[in-house]
Q: What sequence folds into this?
C-alpha cells in the first residue's frame, strides 16, 4: 500500500450535531514529514463532542474527528526518520518538534510548528487535506483524525511506544488520562498534604484525582452534579452542588477552613471556572482550567481574588511534552504505576460511533473505546 491511495472506513461529520456517517474515504499517501497510521483503537473525548456541536471556533465541516487513539505506522513520507512502518504509535494532537521557540523555551509543552495547519484542518506542506471522498476534500481535526481506519499526521505529532503495550488500552494516553495527571504533576505541582477540589468527575477529573492521590494530597474533594460513584481513583469526599442552597465556592470554603490549595475545572463551564477560582484559599490557592468552553464564552471574577493571592492557570495536555513523555506514560502503565483500564467503561466498534457519543451524555460512561 506504500505510496498508494488507501480506501478505508471513516466516520465523517458533515454538519454540526448531524449523526456521523460511516463512509469509504480515500487517504492519500504521506508527503514529506508525514506519517500514515493504521488506527486500531480510538476512544472518544468530550472535546470531540464539543467540536461536533458546532461550538468550537476552529470547527470545520465536513471533517473526521477523533484524537485519542493508538495504531501502527503503515508508511512514512520523505525525510521521516524517527518512525518506520510497523512501529506502534500514539498520535499526539499536541505536537513536539523540539526546534521551535515554544519547544526550546523550557517553559511550555505547546509547539508552534504545525499548529496553524492543524487548526485549519489541513497538512503543513501544501495546506491541503489527505482525506477525500470521490475527489471532495474532508478536513482533518486536531492534526489526528482518528475516527478513520487510516490517518495521516505530521511526524512531529507521533509518539513511538513499546510494541508490547496493549493498544486497546494505551489509546487513552492520547488525551484524557495524561491531561488530568499532568495538570496535577506539571501545571499545579500539588505537594503532599494539599487540599484539592475537582469540578467534573469525567475521565479528566478522575485522572486529576489519581494524580492528586499519587502526589500525596490529604483531601480530594470531587464536585459533580451527577452523583455517580467512582470511588477508586482517589476522591475522598463527594459534593453535589444540587444538595446546597449556597454557591458551591462558599460550600467548599466552609468545608476547608478558608479554601482549597488547588482546584481543577474539568467541565468547560465558565461559571464553574469562576467558582473553582473563588473556592481557593486566600494568599496561595491555585486554580487550573482544563475544560474547553464554547465560542464566545468568557471568564470573569473580581480582580480582588487575584490581588489577594489566588492564581488562575490553564493547561493543555497536562503540560506533557507529547513525543518525549507519552512513551514514558506507556511504561508507567506497563509497570502498573498509573491506571487506564478503570477509565474504560464501554467497548464498541467504529460502526457504533453514534451510539458511543450517546453514551457519553449518559451517566456511567467514562471512556468508550472503539475497535476500528
Ligand atoms: P466528561 O463529559 O466525561 O466529564 C465532565 C463531567 O462534568 C461529567 O461527569 C459531568 O457530570 C460534570 N459536570 C457537568 N456540568 C457540571 C457542573 N455544572 N458542575 C459540576 N459537574 C458538572 O468530559 P471529559 O472527557 O472528562 O473532559 C472534561 C473537559 O476537559 C471537557 O471540557 C474537555 O473538552 C476538556 N479537555 C481538555 C483538555 C486540555 O488539554 N485542556 C484535554 C482533554 C479534555
Ligand atoms: N479549538 C478550540 C481549542 C480547544 C482546546 O483548548 N484544546 C485543548 C485540547 S482539548 C483535548 O481534548 C488544547 O490542547 N489546546 C491548546 C491548543 O493549541 O489547541 C477552541 O476553543 O478554539
Ligand atoms: Zn481530548
A:
Amino acid at each position: 500500500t506504500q505510496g498508494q491511495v488507501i480506501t478505508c472506513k471513516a466516520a465523517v461529520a458533515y454538519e454540526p450535531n448531524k449523526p456521523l456517517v460511516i463512509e469509504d474515504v480515500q487517504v492519500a499517501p504521506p508527503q514529506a514529514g508525514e506519517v500514515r497510521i493504521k488506527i486500531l483503537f480510538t476512544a472518544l473525548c468530550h472535546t470531540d463532542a464539543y467540536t461536533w456541536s458546532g461550538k468550537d471556533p476552529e470547527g470545520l465541516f465536513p471533517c473526521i474527528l477523533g484524537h485519542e487513539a493508538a495504531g501502527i505506522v503503515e508508511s512514512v513520507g520523505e525525510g521521516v526518520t524517527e518512525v518506520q512502518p510497523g512501529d506502534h504509535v500514539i498520535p499526539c494532537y499536541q505536537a513536539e518538534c523540539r526546534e521551535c521557540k515554544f519547544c526550546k523555551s523550557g517553559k511550555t509543552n505547546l509547539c508552534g510548528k504545525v499548529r496553524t495547519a492543524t487548526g485549519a484542518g489541513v497538512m503543513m506542506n501544501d495546506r491541503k487535506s489527505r482525506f477525500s471522498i470521490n475527489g471532495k476534500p474532508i478536513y482533518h481535526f486536531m492534526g489526528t483524525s482518528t475516527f478513520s481506519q487510516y490517518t495521516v499526521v505530521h511526524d512531529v505529532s507521533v509518539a513511538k511506544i513499546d510494541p508490547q503495550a496493549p493498544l486497546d488500552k494505551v489509546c487513552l494516553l492520547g488525551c484524557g488520562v495524561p491531561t488530568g495527571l499532568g495538570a496535577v504533576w506539571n501545571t499545579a505541582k500539588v505537594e503532599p498534604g494539599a487540599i484539592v477540589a475537582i469540578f467534573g468527575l469525567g475521565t479528566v477529573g478522575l485522572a486529576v484525582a489519581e494524580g492528586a492521590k499519587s502526589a500525596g494530597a490529604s483531601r480530594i474533594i470531587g464536585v459533580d452534579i451527577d452523583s455517580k460513584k467512582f470511588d477508586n481513583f482517589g476522591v475522598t469526599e463527594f459534593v453535589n452542588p444540587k444538595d446546597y442552597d449556597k454557591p458551591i465556592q462558599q460550600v467548599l470554603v466552609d468545608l476547608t477552613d478558608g479554601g482549597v490549595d488547588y482546584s481543577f475545572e474539568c467541565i468547560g463551564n465558565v461559571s464553574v471556572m469562576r467558582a473553582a477560582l473563588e473556592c481557593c484559599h486566600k494568599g496561595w490557592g491555585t486554580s487550573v482550567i482544563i475544560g474547553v468552553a464554547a465560542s464566545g464564552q468568557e471568564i470573569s471574577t473580581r480582580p480582588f481574588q487575584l490581588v489577594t493571592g489566588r492564581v488562575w492557570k490553564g493547561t493543555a495536555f497536562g503540560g506533557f511534552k507529547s513525543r518525549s513523555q507519552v512513551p514514558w506514560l506507556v511504561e508507567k502503565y506497563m509497570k502498573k504505576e498509573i491506571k487506564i483500564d478503570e477509565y474504560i467503561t464501554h467497548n464498541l466498534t467504529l460502526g457504533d460511533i453514534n451510539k458511543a457519543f450517546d453514551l457519553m451524555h449518559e451517566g456511567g460512561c467514562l471512556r468508550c473505546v472503539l475497535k476500528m
Observations:
- The chain has eleven helices and 17 strands.
- The mean pLDDT is 97.
- The two ends are 18 Å apart (CA to CA).
